[in-house]
């Protein structure tokens, strides 16, 4: 460990290197010190070196070109975050945060918060005064651009002439304006004279802070799909990509591979479908050139792609319905790493998408994390609804006038409502019976404290039963394509109450839900809102089984696992549940992680279903469904000893009445 004299000499040397624009030498010297020995000041100096390297480069190589290394600047911010407790009241820490955020984000809103904090701590510092003025200038420009954009959007829509019925591309353009944003430019690509294409360019806008580029012309060509799929109306399509706000799109920049490759990728996919009528593009289609693929550009290792419906723009954006009854499908082209594409081919699209949040693929990033090889870094849990740590960070960054306990307000409202409505999963009730009963009896404790102390500060869809879990996924997981979002609704409650408040930034206004106090009046208001939204969910989304799938063969039989603390639902055939046949085959598959609170993964069959009902998909649709696992155990108690076997387990009863494990080989074939 360095003594004080050594540290002073090193700090002096770091300042000399910094003044000489030798930022990498600063980084090497500080990172040579073990992380646990660096201390607060060295960590801040390290952050400064990274931010300067990101913006200026060694010896000022980026001093005039405006280039900013996003990864380095974000690392600089992470370093400052690691010493937030010591730095929040330090003018220097706030200055570094302000400068770094100004360079890292497309809006000056976050930087403005730190600039004001710096100025309040050092009111006579001219640099603090200048940063505040700069941020205010940028925010004023952003607001002017937003107002200008809204005016231009209104003018363009007002002057748009409705297309004729047979004008396919006219209808496509109207659809683009309506659902993706008003395009301000049409780029023409005539590299293939036989198949001309245009690209509609939509500028960054308040609700989607990035460029959206959409092809116009692919839909003139009908793709080939089998007669059996004709009703799906997949023959016509257009493609789109989303590019970051700082992506360079001038003619000169588009001659450079590092800026042109996403557009080239999208066009190549469109031409592939137009030049070969037998190519049929659809959602979940994956493409890659060659066996291992070739990276799209030198500055990225992305080398494949997947087509998905553009969920962030809402379901209505997926299809443009033409007057003659045909439809034009819109697919977002999302570039993939080789490992991601292979994972999709082996495990399916849903499994791949379950590895990462939707926003990680929403906008093209040449250096994004690989959702397969970097899954631990991403640490995405598709069942997570909310996390107190994320909300506390937002409270701190925006300096909101609330306690950190208020980060749990919305979670507590939702959890209390679900307990009162009887929507908790069996594992949750078994683990927290006293708290559930207290809430249901009207003796509601402070659920915020319960969430922090017992639930690790998180709310998960696994806490709820089948309907409750489905509702949570639909309404409370920030599904941007959904017409209703829990956090947004709560924000609107606050905005209605604080109509005269002047918000410091759009970011602060968006986080207004954190200002909803944890009071009885607000609890009742939110619960009324949840009742309304839940009813809308049941009417619009929830599909229940006929007759609630009552296992009539269990009627009159005694309970055999009254203390069962696992998920209540299992899958079973009517031969077992209705006719009372003994279970001959039991198979436990991995359910969706979001549904693990209510679905056990078990499926039970009598083994003669094919003889009774016939083979094919209709058998599963008509004669199988979800049942209460306790009822299936009442019908055949022999299955009880196996219920806690792991996912992937399959057991079959032999002619001797004994159970034998079924082993699946690599091809999925079964062996006993």
Automatic annotation (TrEMBL):
DUF7832 domain segment(s): 385-484
Stretches assigned to the Immunity protein Imm33 domain: 570-662
Domain Suppressor of fused-like residues, every copy: 194-368
The protein's name: DUF2185 domain-containing protein
